[in-house]
């Protein structure tokens, strides 16, 4: 008798979205592994602009589903990160140099457009390298696949012949979805011009499907050309379907803005005698203004920006939560993501297995959580750095060692990384706008009382004792605070220059009673 694995049993019933997605793949192959011997996950990437968090986010979420599938099944899996780098350059991104040069190469496959950064063989090679570097840095297990290399090597030739065989069926699927003027020129096949090297958007006539021959007009001349081995690429919805068919893709997720595209590509895949993959549609990240993040606009956050101000795990945490809910992605969300990640990580060891499977950190670390804890919150670190001014990492550690017994880089290595993030965040986003307001009359009276109470405490007073004093002052009707939160807001605005802040007991204990009294004196003198 086989003893059931408690993890597998719990995963079968877990409502965490990666397990719900993984169970779709169990139903897809109820009798075991497919003929190819593995389950294929795919993520797609259009390298027409610099990679952004949305791109990374898709690989991360797909990896979480893949890991969840491993908990449910012993069938091997692969993850392909596919770059559609044979696509023609449609417009010049706003956030890259050498705009005039790029304009001169509009329409050419991205792998034939020179790199505006002058570092790589082409614009696509540059952006592909950036994507791979980040995915490698995060430790993803994936295989990078270039559309250009696949087309040119003939890897898609059999599938391209099938596209020509089913040409009319594909047209019947696509034409009703297009405007009348677009219907007149639409073709599923985009031949590469032998004259200009541009990806042509022209009608084509199938001459010989088995030989891959088509006929089209190119600058007034009738051309007969094979679409095999790099002679053409496909319109992207058809290309997507062809890829699913050629590679045998079993799972691919997509943004909510691509729901119609998934529908059309799925129909085309079936017309090719293929089976569309499983997947789900996630909501898009928005920038601070509530607008969709775009590679070409360069709005929102870049991968590099998030990793300057927060660790990788905080980004993964933010991506995991509520994938079907639109979320704004800007600098202000980073501190909270950092602290919530650590909160969930701290809860994990004390949870039941069912609770652990629903904990975001389980999916971030695939159940293999690193050792270590955090003695202070990231928010508290930010406030400490804020009052210290132009501080060094060593100076911050000096304060922490007064507050946390035995604190050092060796005992809290992850805290050392967070100090670097806090210093960068303060330097770039807090310091330029930091403005402490003068206290109002009743607030000044309350601050004087706080100063007297602190003066009576020993230097090593606990954070809890200090917090009790802060609470008592806020609740004292003599100081005229309508609500306790009005007192806390006054402390944050007059002492820290912020609208929100930490538990003041923890902050004062960390910053030191004498230093905190100096802050109060500065506020009263304002």
From TrEMBL:
MF-aspect GO terms: lysine-tRNA ligase activity
Swiss-Prot/TrEMBL catalytic activity: tRNA(Lys) + L-lysine + ATP = L-lysyl-tRNA(Lys) + AMP + diphosphate
Annotated motif 'HIGH' region, positions: 47-55
Alphabetized Pfam families for the sequence: tRNA-synt_1f
Record Gene3D superfamilies: 1.10.10.350, HUPs
Keywords, alphabetical: Aminoacyl-tRNA synthetase, ATP-binding, Cytoplasm, Ligase, Nucleotide-binding, Protein biosynthesis
Compartments, record wording: Cytoplasm
Family as reported in the entry's similarity comment: Belongs to the class-I aminoacyl-tRNA synthetase family.
HAMAP family with a match to the protein in the record: Lys_tRNA_synth_class1 (MF_00177)
Annotated protein name in UniProt: Lysine--tRNA ligase
Species in which this protein is naturally found: Sphingobium soli
Name of the coding gene: lysS
